[in-house]
Amino acid sequence: MSDTRSDSNVDLVTRTNQLEVPRLLTITIVISGMIAIVALIISAVAISKPASSDITVQGSTTNIQQTQPAVAASTYDASRYQSSYKKRIYTIAVGFGSGGFEYYDASGFKVGFFHDVIDAVCLEANMDCRTVTEPYTNCVISERGQPQRGGIGLMSGWYDACTGWLATRQRKQFSAFSKPFLKPPEAYFYALSGFNTLDITGKKVGLVSGWFTNEACLAGLDQVTGRDVPHGNVFHAQTPAELLAMIQNRTVDVGFTTASVMTDRISGTNVQQYPTDPIFCKNVGEQGMMTRKDNDFNSKWNEGFEKLVSSGRFKRLCDEAQTKHGGRGKINCVDA
Ligand SMILES: *[C@@H]1O[C@H](CO)[C@@H](O)[C@H](O)[C@H]1NC(C)=O
Predict the structure, then answer these.
(1) Ligand 1 pocket residues where CB is under 6 Å
(2) What's the angle, vertex CA 155, arms to CA 151 and CA 157, rounded to 5?
(3) What is this structure's pTM?
(4) Distance 269 CA to ligand 1 centre (A)
């Protein structure tokens, strides 16, 4: 009895030791790896920096003398490590003040459904994504009497992509679109009470510059008289907030934009939404990411997005958004 017990004890100890060995090995490997990385970084610094370098610590500059000679120079080729170490950073423009898609939380941080989607897709796609807050007109710009064109930020490559733009015939001329994640938004007219939706003849019309709710969309609304708005009667706001102000101070007779950014904004004002049923523009697709045509962003993004969709996480993200951001306007995801 006692023999058996002691045997099993020995056995236990041996087994524990057997378990201990691989763990120790792993730790040793990890530590050696870390030391190797630190050594690489030190040698890289030694090559790229002169023997003495200025290091700024919270505003004060300290001059640190490096006594170490640049011995590693002949054995270490920094450029060989650049591509494998440095992951491409993708920068993404996101606007501000657009319903539940992009807004500032109580602490002043940018939040909203667009940010949720970017975080989730970039994680799936293994992309290093950074958002930058930009005026919409740097992505797409409209000017009186001219077709929409790519904004300076998008076309000059200040960032890789603009977020949540709808694929339209005009925009497809200068940009490429990812797989869509939002259905086409519902549009309405916004005006002070007594406005006749079905006749905008001679009315001054306010639009948000760069948005798909533009002159081309208006011109396709068969049910509306005076839909070919003369250029002189078109006024562009830079943001939905500015459009509302233009309606309120009578710079324009009527504004034309999407419910997702306006319905919530007009509550408690004397501005009303017309007609009862939403308006859908012709020749528009759904909303996704928009890039220059020569950018590889969309192919990587689409891979991540597909993974998000097939795992069911995209649908969950959309369902959660209704409670998280939905109070600020409808978030209408594509069926997935
Ligand atoms: C009306 O509001 C717009 C947008 O805020 C502003 O640019 C414009 O100067 C205002 N016009 C008048 C007459 O107050």
Answers:
(1) 242, 245-246, 249, 251
(2) 120
(3) 0.69
(4) 16
ω into residue 275 within 30 of 0, thus cis? yes
Dist. CA 75 → ligand 1 center (Å)? 66
Model confidence pLDDT, tens digit, residues 199-219: 999 999 999 999 999 999 999
Which residue's entry shows tokens 């597909």?
306
Contacts of 108 (CB under 8 A, 6+ apart): none
Percent of the chain with pLDDT over 70: 75
Residue 254 near residue 128, CB atoms below 8 Å: no
DSSP 171: G
Q: How far apart are CA 154 and CA 132, in angstroms?
A: 12
Q: What is the C-alpha to C-alpha distance for residues 299 and 281, in angstroms, rounded to an integer?
A: 28
Domains and CATH numbers, the chain: 89-183+285-328 (3.40.190.10), 187-279 (3.40.190.10)
Structure confidence at residue 42 (pLDDT): 55
Nearest CA to ligand 1 atom 14: 249
**pLDDT digits 0-9 by tens, 4-13:** 444 444 444 4
Given a contact cutoff of 8 angstroms between Cβ atoms, the answer to whether 244 and 262 are in contact is yes
**Residue written as token pair 């030391």:** 35
Which helix (H) or strand (E) element contains residue 155?
Answer: helix 152-155
Pairing of strands 161-168, 284-291: antiparallel
